[in-house]
Backbone:
């Protein structure tokens, strides 16, 4: 019956060969999976070790992503320094401060008067007494303004800056970005560190898979020998071991994905609570589709590579020298 | 079908196991290989199956000079040569069916075709009813017949047997030899190493006698 159904596709040899190949590979892959399931304890231990090794860098990745997102939202709510025109008196400045402070899009305003600014400058610049010889205070008054938490996007911030600059008596407004730059530098450092950790743990996956496959080869030495005697090619003999490695990697990747997902779920509430205390809102994000696919692909790749190395080193064939 | 041309095989630690040996086995011929222990019978068979390479001389199987066969072509050569061992070399954790199917699986044959061929082969050795059994549940004679079914399942033109009846009583040995006789009748070339001289004599086939790696007698009874 099956033969009759197959007939129509027979005339194209390439298609038929491809079908055969797919069927063979699929069968080999499933048979290998069967074997892994047949020894659940050993499989679970290997998969668990791989899952942990993959979960650590994945967690770091998620943490970094969230920190960056958090940094992004802070970026937008960074303090604004509004420099006032020189002819604005301290009284007028105070009036402006209370006016601005009353706006809905402003959380807090602090006035740094001309004198206070000079005193601060004297202290930090180290010029000290030299400044006493100035006949006039050259510094403008400054309003240090914290926007309301609703001001999150760059566009909103830009609009706010423009609105503030348009006020009578205002000279220009500037976003305080120094701390944000530090923040980004730290994030970049963390990213490098986590890349390093990812590499080390990737190596761990290679070793774990390699060792497991080595034992598998050891256990099946008799079978390998007989396959050799009956005319199996090297590729044929290697194939199940490579599939084993790929399966370990894939299952480990799935395990890691579940671990990260569980951790994100677990932390969702405490993080939300913490954000509440800071009067902001923040949803912890997990692995998106692309990152998830990358995680699984990394697992499969490492698993296959690990078994490939083990097979190359430990699979000896019955061959004349 | 099998031709040895001044072949020598030296094992570094044991000296020459085969010394300047020449022989010619025609296609479809059945021959016995005798000689005391250590005479080089197994070594000679291993040279044909390319489990070893000769130190000197050439081995030609089915018109192909094995010396010029690259490593990656060896599996395809072994598919032309069915090998049977005294200790059967069966996989103990696979059923009789799966054991016999191994050469066909290795060739990448389709499942349906495999089932057909395996059953035909098991039928030939009279074990069809035991296909689902593990080898450990079989007697020595039955295990050897599984080994034979595996060697012939891919229908190789050459069959080599290394003391296939070494552990069997005379009655079972005779049955096994009769099985070989049947393969001979359908045109397969067979070379059988054995100590069973009475049986060899009673069957009246060509007999090659080895002594210390040399061919010392060739009863060209063909
Ligand atoms: N792998 C090997 N390494 C070293 N020496 C070997 C090896 N195989 C066989 N020999 C030596 O080669 C000689 C021939 O051995 P071979 O196994 O061919 O004899 P045989 O005729 O099959 O003997 P038996 O009847 O006992 O099986 C012996 O001296 C043996 O010790
Ligand atoms: Mg021997």
Residues:
């Amino acid at each position: 019956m099956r033969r009759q159904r197959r007939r129509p596709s027979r005339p194209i040899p390439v298609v038929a060969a491809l079908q055969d190949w797919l069927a063979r590979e699929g069968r080999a892959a499933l048979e290998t999976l069967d074997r892994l399931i047949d020894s659940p304890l050993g499989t679970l231990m290997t998969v668990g070790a791989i899952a942990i090794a993959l979960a650590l860098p994945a967690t770091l990745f998620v943490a970094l992503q969230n920190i960056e997102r958090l940094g992004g939202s802070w970026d937008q709510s960074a303090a604004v320094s509004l420099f006032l025109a020189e002819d604005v008196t301290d009284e007028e400045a105070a009036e402006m401060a209370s006016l601005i402070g009353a706006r809905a899009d402003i959380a807090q305003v602090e006035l740094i008067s001309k004198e206070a600014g000079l005193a601060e400058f004297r202290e930090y610049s180290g010029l000290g007494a030299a400044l006493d010889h100035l006949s006039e205070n050259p510094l403008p008054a400054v309003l240090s303004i914290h926007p309301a938490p609703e001001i999150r996007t760059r566009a909103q911030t830009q609009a706010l800056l423009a609105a503030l600059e348009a006020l009578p008596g205002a000279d220009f407004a500037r976003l305080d970005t120094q701390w944000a730059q530090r923040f980004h530098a730290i994030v970049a450092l963390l990213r490098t560190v986590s890349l390093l950790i990812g590499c080390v743990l990737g190596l761990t996956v290679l070793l774990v898979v390699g060792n497991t496959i080595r034992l598998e080869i050891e256990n099946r030495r008799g079978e390998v020998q007989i396959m050799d005697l009956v005319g199996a090619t090297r590729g044929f003999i290697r194939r199940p071991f490579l599939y084993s490695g790929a399966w370990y990697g894939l299952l480990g990747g799935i395990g890691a994905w579940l671990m990260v997902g569980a951790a994100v779920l677990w932390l969702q509430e405490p993080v939300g609570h913490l954000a509440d205390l800071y009067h902001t809102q923040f949803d912890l994000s997990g692995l998106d589709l692309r990152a998830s696919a990358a995680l699984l692909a990394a697992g499969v790749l490492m698993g296959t590579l690990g078994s490939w190395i083990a097979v190359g080193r430990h699979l000896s064939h019955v061959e004349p020298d | 079908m099998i031709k040895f041309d001044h072949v020598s095989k030296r094992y570094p630690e044991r000296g020459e196991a085969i010394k300047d040996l020449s022989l010619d086995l025609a296609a479809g011929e059945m021959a016995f290989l005798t000689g005391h222990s250590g005479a080089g019978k197994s070594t000679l068979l291993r040279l044909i199956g390319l489990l070893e390479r000769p130190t000197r001389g050439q081995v030609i199987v089915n018109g192909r000079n094995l010396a010029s066969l690259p490593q990656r072509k060896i599996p395809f050569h072994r598919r032309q040569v069915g090998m049977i061992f005294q200790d059967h070399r069966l996989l103990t954790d696979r059923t009789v069916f799966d054991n016999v199917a191994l050469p066909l699986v290795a060739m990448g044959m389709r499942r349906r075709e495999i089932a057909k061929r395996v059953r035909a082969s098991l039928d030939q050795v009279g074990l069809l009813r035991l296909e689902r059994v593990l080898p450990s549940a079989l007697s020595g004679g039955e295990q050897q017949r599984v080994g034979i079914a595996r060697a012939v399942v891919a229908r190789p033109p050459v069959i080599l047997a290394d003391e296939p009846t070494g552990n069997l009583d005379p009655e079972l040995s005779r049955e096994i030899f009769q099985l070989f006789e049947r393969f001979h009748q359908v045109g397969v070339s067979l070379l059988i190493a054995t100590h069973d001289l009475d049986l060899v004599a009673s069957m009246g086939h060509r007999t090659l006698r080895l002594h210390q790696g040399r061919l010392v007698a060739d009863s060209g009874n063909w």
